[in-house]
Amino acid sequence: MSFTGRKTDMNFEKTGREMHALITELYPICRSITGKGVRKTLDILGRYIPLEIHQVPTGTPVYDWTVPKEWNIEDAYVKNSKGDKIIDFKATNLHILNYSIPLKKKVSLQELREHLFTLPDYPDWIPYRTSYYKNNWGFCISHNQYLNLNDPEYEVFIDTSLDNGHLTYGEYFIKGQEADEILISCHICHPSLCNDNLSGIAVTSFLAEYLTRKQSRYSYRFLFIPGTIGSIAWLSLNEHRIANIKHGLVAACLGDPGKFTYKKSRLGNAEIDRAVLCTLRDSGEDFGILNFVPYGYDERQYCSPGFNLPVGCLMRTPYSRYPEYHTSADNLDFVRPASLAGSFALLLSILNILENNRKFLNKNPKCEPQLGKRGLYQAIGGENDKKSMEIAMLWILNLSDGYNSLIDIAERSGIRFSHLRQVVDILLSHSLLKEVQ
Hints:
This protein is an alpha/beta fold. The chain contains twelve helices and 19 strands. Helix 5 packs across helix 9 (about 335-355) and helix 10 (about 385-400) crosses helix 12 (about 415-430). About 45% of the residues are buried.
């Protein structure tokens, strides 16, 4: 079985443009860890895949956490002494401190400054800040705008609500030939930030839609969840499903022009870690590898010691390592259709390795079988091709003892996984191998 990302399989350039168009549609929505923005986002994704929407009520205990009150916003602004709106939520939703409490009052310049957030090193950018679990209010503005504040008094208006409601997340399950699952998770709680994480949302949605049309060995579970509290809630409510998860990836920051970076699972040498490394190595492009640390995205929840799931995180430039991170500069110009398409293709290649990573047994284990009489040296044309195939056959036959997987053979031989898989099919057709279940 294979759903390879070869160019003949689909038009990646077109897919990249379509993913960027989805990001463009989602970009204006004010999302948070709860609220209407999350539900609107999931409604849009429902056009691509039939999401199952889950609502977890406020006050629900989820391990050491409690689902918070639902936050929604209608408007927010600051007016100067002339009545002009100098900070306006409707101009960009990054202006509001996410989860700000409702407020309507006049404040001094000194008090206002205590509730303003800026980026002095990037004076034209607006930062993204939150206050999910502590009652507060505030605004995010450019530092240049901050320096120009000189009125003695300002009018502050924040039309928000913090009420009993729900934490909302989306889930999509594709049943494969086996009950074992591959988990793909992305966070959907950020407002107008394109790389973090509208890129992950778009790539994951298109990946799920693509796999819907394919037959697969594994079952696939896709989660579109608020960061941290979403994965904690899902794990708390789905402990009965955990044993089925054999591999997993968190998808984030997949639209910038940087090289791919993979953060390993807590296990460090799980099959998913090796499959990603194998794919990146075979790509011939530069890449980075990070060891697991208990900080970052939702991989730290899936990899917590009570679960220790084999879940890594696939990114391009990692969070906080590009200046645009959590700022207004993480916009529609920062994410590239070509980068989105490349991320989509890489994920397909990773899944293709997982789907095809089998163990085989050499049916002629005592010395090398006579390959020439079977015409195997001529199975692929060209001198270089024949030599490459011969070496691959010898590696596969020598290491196919029922214990080594194709990833094991790829790692020891340095041969591309896709080439090994092709040669395995030839050896199977000549009854030189049999698959080990």
